[in-house]
């Protein structure tokens, strides 16, 4: 279970409370904000590489497939809720994105007996945009830099909603097709390249 890919995933999960603590210890102090950004950035980077490492070296495990999407959702959700509490991200954004994540998870459970909905480029783009925007939002930015952060976050929300709607359509199609298990191109919540197949790491991520 403790291969390099799973260690990276566990590291991401452990960094979630570290990030939150750094953010709230000194919410208006540049040093603590930079420390929180560093924790978030390291966690986001592990999201980009753990799945690729697992597949490349044959380290795919059931533990990794289960814990990885949990770690991803925990990281994004913690950042959104924390920044909303600090009045730095509108609660409407947090409700939409977190609601979308919960909805996709429930849909996946609904169709799991009929087949696997694999990762899509849209989902990977959503994860990338949210990670970039939330990381920037943690930094003490002002002026044009803050505007860029807001623009990237808006793009991430749009992609999140679009891929969520697409997920519903594909889930319904899979249910109608039923018969034998199948795999449809679908959207991931996880980092690029993490759900390439039904047996791959994070194939059940969304």
**What is the strand content?**
under 5%
Low-pLDDT segments, ≥5 res? 180-200
Q: What is the highest CATH level, the class?
A: Mainly Alpha
Q: How many beta-strand runs?
A: 2
Structural key phrases:
single chain; 206 residues; mainly alpha; Four Helix Bundle (Hemerythrin (Met), subunit A); two-stranded parallel sheet; 6 helices; 2 strands
Describe this entry's structure for a reader.
Helices cover 71% and strands 4% of the residues. It is mostly helical. The protein has a single domain, classed as Up-down Bundle (Four Helix Bundle (Hemerythrin (Met), subunit A)), CATH 1.20.120. A two-stranded parallel ribbon has the order 1-2. α1 runs antiparallel to α2, α4 runs parallel beside α6 and α5 runs antiparallel to α6. The two termini are 23 Å apart. About 10% of the residues have low confidence.
State the gist of this model.
The protein has six helices and two strands, in the order H-H-H-H-E-H-H-E.
Fold blueprint:
Blueprint: H1 4-25, H2 30-56, H3 62-85, H4 91-111, E1 115-118, H5 121-138, H6 144-177, E2 182-185
Parallel strand pairs: 1-2
Helix pairs in contact: 1-2, 1-3, 2-3, 2-5, 3-4, 3-5, 4-6, 5-6
